[in-house]
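Structure first, sequence second, as always.
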């Protein structure tokens, strides 16, 4: 490997903007936001209660589905039903 003539260590604008956005909300709000995302992302890997509540909101409330499709079922799935795909693969 040849010698390095120069190195750009300037922080991209993204970090400045993100830092400003982070400072707009309280630490407590960020913790709540991140906890919710972590729980939502892991819901199908957690207990049946998490799977059920995830479906109650995303399946029933947002999509109007009456019941959770059986795990491993051949129910039609779209790119917007990632949780259903993960649920089906889980079983």
């Amino acid at each position: 490997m040849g010698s390095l003539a120069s190195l750009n260590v300037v922080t991209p604008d993204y970090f400045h903007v993100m830092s400003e956005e982070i400072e707009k909300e309280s630490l407590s709000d960020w913790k709540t936001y991140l906890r919710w995302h972590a729980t939502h992302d892991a819901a199908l890997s957690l207990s049946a209660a998490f799977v059920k509540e995830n479906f109650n909101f995303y399946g029933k409330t947002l999509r109007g589905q009456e019941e959770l499709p059986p795990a491993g079922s051949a129910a039609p799935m779209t790119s917007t039903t990632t949780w259903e795909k993960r649920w089906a693969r889980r079983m």
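Margin note: DSSP finds four helices and no strands in the chain.
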